[in-house]
Amino acid sequence: MKKQDLYKELRMDEFFWGGSFIVDRDKVDSELIKEIDRICVFENKTPLAEKWKKLNLKECSDLLLNAFNFDLAYQGYAIMTTDKAEYYKKLIVSKFDESDTKCFTNWCQNPWKSKNGASWNSVTENTFDMAIVLADKTKIAFTYFISED
After folding, report:
1. How far apart (Å, rounded) are the C-alpha atoms in residues 20 and 22?
2. What average pLDDT does the segment 41-51 reach?
3. DSSP labels for 71-118?
4. Considering only CA atoms, which of 133, 112, 130 is closest in space to residue 121?
5. pLDDT for 55 beyond 90
């Protein structure tokens, strides 16, 4: 599995705990969720199978922007400027074409937009985590954020 580590390469580690990388797809015709779960296992994350929530690219883009911009545990606390968050979001999203991209997260709704709280299926042992996945026929971008209260 060829892996491009965006987290270290782009110095995202200066702003948040987690990771961000792009891997080549195993096979175009493979089952995407199973492939995402194999990545989870390879990265020592918990596979979610049918618990991955599908998003459209706009929802995914909004979630990425919020996750880059704000802490998961203290959601009003900015961990980087909005401009920097927008830069990282665009860098990932621009690698994907809207018509050919499938997006997933481990959250049931965007916690920064939900008025009644939000729930998620953990992929780590941390108190808070968020995984955001974009995939097309040739690659998968996997970005995750972890936080503690």
Report:
1. 7
2. 97
3. -SSSTTSBSS-HHHHHHHHHHHHTTS-GGG-EEEESBSS-TTT-SS--
4. 130
5. yes
